[in-house]
Design a protein that fits this description.
The structure holds three protein chains of three kinds. By secondary structure, chain A is mainly alpha-helical. Helix content of chain A is about 60%, strand content about 0%. The longest helix of chain A has 26 residues. Chain B is built from 24 helices and two strands. Chain B has a two-stranded antiparallel ribbon. Classes of the chains: A mainly alpha, B mainly alpha, C mainly alpha. Chain A: InterPro entries: NADH_UbQ/plastoQ_OxRdtase_su6, Nuo/plastoQ_OxRdtase_6_NuoJ. Chain A: GO terms for molecular function: NADH dehydrogenase (ubiquinone) activity; quinone binding. Chain A: Its EC number is 7.1.1.-.
């Protein structure tokens, strides 16, 4: 039996840990999942310390929460921070089967624990008599020294492996800005600078594309990475609508007859960016 | 003296080994070595014969144990030779006639570039035959038996460049295998029944075995004898065997090979005496073959094939006599010996004729040769008179005794056999007179050979005529010598036993009948072929003639009854193999392939599916572990 | 309170992690779920250590952490390189593991 203080602590931490885990599982965005997991890990770190594993608790915070989770976040940023999973399951029956398996496994584990003889807790007061870190060090550098050395080799291998996997061989020297400019002129595809992203009264972010004079989106005005992630916010519709309203108001104020006003029904014609060439061919 | 017995075999065997291994160095004089060794073997035989004569009848049989061949507990096979009156008779016939044939071959094969090899095979033939007749157990006899088969294969197919010779050799070998199978089964049966296959214990305990088992052994031995001695139904190889060089035919027909069957039956007399059913089978086979061979001999225009038919018929006589039991054993052997003389003489004569006629074998292309080949004519003629049973010559006495013995069998059986034998004698006289007349009498019907050379018949060299003369002497006098005071009968009696049957006819009556039949047959042949010109092209002939020209349809029979069903069986098995077994295997493969193609759909390639199955598997494992713990 | 409750908590977390591996498609979240499972087992190991009164369980948890760190490094490197070539972090987009 433990002290009441520890019981209270446990229940608090357990709620945090499980909540974090469920949040990780259910959050649509990876970055939220990562944050939830960090919360769970912190809760677990406190659990370790409460159970006498002070060293492990600190390691959990420093290595796991500090290093590994940051690595996760770093990769999440690389891949696209706002990219969200669609909730539509693509594999037939996967979700039901997964939930069933998970429930079954949980029931099995809990039932196994309930049936196990778990009454006698020796406690670590004796083992931690000269300090938890000293006790661990004694074991690591005597009994488990071979495993320790092997894990060192494993870490080196993993580091080298990660480098090899992410390293991109450069077959020639990168082009300088001058060379790129010369190339652009030579190819005569996009000689002037690319258009800037749209800057409007309400939207002035880099993910908002500029609009061309006919109201269509200028694709080149948004950076390629965002286009690839599908994180472009197309505001053309909204802008055109507002221009139409402005024209209407102007006409009202000038007192023009309705027949003299430009006929606009629904979205503007220009928005249906259908190339005239295709139309002719279709006819 | 007994130590000479292995040397009997060793001499020709050493000759064969020497000539085969010696290489071309021996090409020039190898044939003389072979002949000398054959003669040496004959000399040993004579010495042993003289030694045997010096002992009284009870102590004449001797056994010489050479070494223990397969000494296993309960299975003792020895290389041991048994020399008794029967063996020595065969030894003298084989080595004597064999030596003369060697001598003859020196002249006959003078121009063959593979002469050394030929003589090696001849020596091998003699050695194998000597092992066969000297063995004191059936297993060693089997070795000789197979050796004879091998040597005959090599010699019949000696001119292997001719497809017909190669085929004939193969045929002889394969047909003989059927007989060999019979002998091997007989040996196995003996071992199972008597626990031994040596002559002594088998014959001593033969009485303890049931008659059914003895009959089975006897029938298997008969099958073996049929194969080796060319008896119905395994006779088909003999005619084709004429593809070999003529001395080989002489050797096969007179001294070795075909006599082995007769020897086997006479030697196994103790078994046959106790198995009357097997004996009946032997008699029937002999009688049928006697007439079969004679009819075939009548229709053949090829001189060697006519003689082959004759051999078949004469061996039929011997087998029939051997099947008569103790009444006939001695006479079978007596006829065998006299037949050895005159048939060897006639084959050598036929070879001499062919030698002079550019290897022509068709008798319709002969005629009038007596003036050109006087020695051949004289020796062949004496052999002819002997075989048809002209009174006073050897065949007369030996055949007469067999006919008497056939009548002496008694009852209806005796009458049938006797009449068959008499009919055979008449037919024998007919076809032999036909051969004689077509070859040596009448006008010349010589034809140019394939290259357009006209034949210039001439007498053969001394090395060929001398053996013929010697054999002619044997043909004339052997019979008289043997029957004088029943000396041959008394000589063999300790081995074969003898019993007098009760013949319904007196010996003189039988002799008279036989002589009359012989004269009638000869007269008919003279009437048909001597009095009127013989057409060079054979007339179409009656149905029987045409059938006889085709060896009484024996090959057609074999083909229809054995070859075609065999081929069909093989085709069926091939079909079964390719469709049934392969189909099963292929079907299995296709089924697995199909199932796999369907199972492959489980492999979606999505890592989460795999994770799910892993997790499910873990679930099952944990669940079963907990379940087992709780149980 | 019975310290065995820590084990129940570990079982619950492990189950959530395992379900997440099966349910989520984003490779990064998938890895987070694996990490959660490893953490759950670490918690169980620490509790066992306390139960038996020796530090071997903690040593094992320590090694688990090391292995988890190595695994994350390599795994994230793989994710990055896959993302570079396929422009997607979804594990369902990579289904070449079939014929």
């Amino acid at each position: 039996m433990t002290s009441t203080g520890e019981a209270v602590q446990f229940w608090v931490l357990a709620v945090v840990a499980v909540g974090g885990a469920l949040g990780m599982l259910l959050m649509k965005k990876a970055v939220h999942s990562a944050l939830c997991l960090a919360a769970t890990m912190l809760a677990l770190a406190v659990c370790y310390m409460a159970q006498g594993a002070v060293f492990l608790g600190v390691v959990q915070i420093v290595v796991y929460t500090g290093a590994i989770m940051m690595l996760f976040l770093f990769v999440v940023m690389l891949v696209g921070v706002s990219a969200a999973d669609s909730l539509k399951e693509q594999l037939k029956g996967q979700r039901i089967a997964a939930v069933l398996c998970g429930l079954g496994f949980g029931v099995l584990l809990v039932a196994g624990l309930a049936n196990a003889h778990l009454r006698d807790f020796t406690g670590l007061s004796e083992a931690n008599a000269e300090g938890n870190v000293q006790g661990l060090a004694r074991l690591i550098f005597t009994k488990y020294v071979w495993a320790f050395e092997v894990t060192g080799a494993l870490l080196i291998t993993a580091a080298v492996g990660a480098m090899v996997l992410t390293h991109r061989e450069k077959v020639r020297a990168p082009l300088t800005q001058r060379q790129l400019a010369a190339q652009r002129v030579k190819d005569n595809i996009q000689v002037p600078p690319l258009p800037a992203p749209g800057v409007y009264a309400r939207h002035n972010a880099v993910d908002v594309p500029a609009l061309l004079p006919d109201g269509t989106v200028a694709e080149d005005s948004v950076m390629g990475t965002l286009r690839e992630r599908g994180q472009v916010r197309d505001v053309s519709q909204e802008m055109l609508q507002r221009m139409a309203e402005l024209e209407e108001t102007t006409a009202d104020w000038l007192g023009r007859p309705s027949s003299a006003r430009p006929q606009v029904t629904g979205p503007r014609q220009a928005l249906e960016t259908v190339p005239t060439k295709d139309k002719e061919e279709a006819e | 003296m007994n130590s000479l017995i292995p040397l009997l075999v060793a001499a020709p065997l050493a000759g064969a080994a020497l000539l085969l291994l010696g290489g071309r160095a021996l090409d020039r004089f190898g044939h003389w070595i072979a002949t000398a060794l054959a003669a040496l073997s004959f000399a040993f035989g004579l010495a042993l014969f003289a030694d045997m004569l010096g002992r009284d009848a009870e102590h004449r049989a001797v056994t010489e144990q050479l070494y223990s061949w397969i000494p296993v507990d309960g299975f003792q096979a020895d290389v041991a030779f048994q020399l008794d009156q029967l063996s020595i008779t065969f030894v003298l016939l084989i080595t004597g006639v064999g030596t003369l044939i060697h001598l003859y071959s020196v002249g006959y094969m003078a121009h063959d570039e593979r002469r050394r090899r030929f003589f090696a095979y001849l020596n091998l033939f003699l050695a194998a035959m000597l092992v066969l007749v000297l063995a004191d157990n059936y297993l060693l006899l089997y070795v000789g038996w197979e050796g004879v088969g091998l040597a005959s294969f090599l010699l019949i197919g000696f001119w292997q460049h001719k497809p017909s010779a190669a085929t004939a050799a193969k045929k002889a070998f394969i047909v003989n295998r059927v007989g060999d199978m019979g002998l091997s089964i007989a040996i196995m049966l003996m071992f199972v029944e008597f626990g031994s296959f040596a002559f002594q214990p088998v014959f001593a305990t033969a009485g303890d075995a049931s008659e059914g088992k003895l009959t089975a052994i006897g029938l298997m031995l008969l099958l073996a004898a049929c194969g080796k001695s060319a008896q119905v139904p395994l006779q088909s190889w003999l005619g084709d065997a004429m593809e070999g060089p003529t001395p080989v035919s002489a050797l096969i027909h007179a001294a070795t090979m075909v006599t082995a069957g007769v020897y086997l039956i006479v030697r196994s007399g103790a078994i046959f005496n106790l198995a009357p059913d097997a004996q009946t089978a032997v008699v029937v086979v002999g009688a049928v073959t006697l007439l079969f061979g004679a009819v075939v001999g009548c229709a053949k225009d090829d001189i060697k094939k006519a003689l082959a038919g004759s051999t078949m018929s004469q061996i039929g006589y011997m087998i029939m006599a051997a099947g008569l039991g103790p009444i006939g054993y001695a006479f079978a052997i007596m006829h065998l010996v006299t037949h050895g003389f005159f048939k060897a003489g006639m084959f050598l004569g036929a070879g001499s004729v062919m030698h002079g006629m550019n290897d022509e074998v068709n008798m319709r292309h002969y005629g009038g040769l007596r003036k050109y080949m006087p020695v051949t004519f004289a020796t062949f003629g004496l052999g002819y008179l002997a075989i048809i049973g002209f009174p006073g010559l050897s065949g007369f006495f030996s055949k007469d005794k067999i006919i008497e013995a056939a009548f002496a069998k008694g009852g209806t059986e005796g009458w049938i056999l006797g009449l068959c034998a008499l009919l055979g004698a008449a037919v024998t006289a007919f076809y032999m007179t036909r051969v004689m007349v077509l070859t040596f009498f009448g006008e010349k019907r010589w034809q140019p050979d394939a290259e357009g050379n006209d034949p210039h018949p001439h007498e053969s060299p001394k090395s060929m005529t001398v053996p013929m003369v010697v054999l002619a002497f044997g043909s004339v006098f052997a019979g008289g010598l043997f029957v004088y005071g029943n000396s041959f009968l008394h000589w063999l009696e300790p081995v074969t036993g003898h019993a007098e049957g009760d013949s319904p006819l007196s010996p003189w009556t039988v002799t008279g009948l036989a002589t009359a039949c012989m004269l009638a047959g000869a007269a008919l042949a003279w009437q048909m072929y001597g009095r009127s010109p013989v057409p060079v092209k054979p007339p179409v002939g009656s149905l029987l003639t045409r059938a006889a020209r085709r060896d009484l349809l024996q090959d057609d029979f074999n083909h229809a009854v054995l070859v075609r069903p065999g081929t069909a069986l093989a085709a069926t098995l091939v079909w079964f193999d390719s469709r049934g077994l392969d189909g099963f295997v292929n079907g299995l493969a296709a089924a697995i392939g199909g199932i796999s193609a369907r199972l492959r759909r489980i492999q979606t390639g999505y890592v989460r599916t795999y994770a799910l199955s892993m997790f499910g598997g873990t679930l099952v494992l944990v669940a079963s572990t907990l379940l087992m713990r709780s149980v | 309170m019975n310290p065995a409750n820590y084990l129940y908590l570990a079982a619950l977390l492990f189950t959530i992690g395992a379900s997440g591996v099966l349910l989520r498609r984003n490779a990064i979240v998938l890895f987070m779920c694996v990490e959660l499972m490893l953490n759950a087992s670490n918690l169980a190991l620490v509790t066992f250590s306390r139960m038996h009164g020796n530090l071997d369980g903690q040593i094992l948890a320590f090694f688990t952490m090391v292995v988890a760190a190595a695994e994350v490094v390599v795994g994230l490197a793989i994710i990055v390189s896959i993302f570079r070539t396929r422009h997607s972090a979804s594990v369902d987009d990579s289904n070449l593991m079939k014929l």
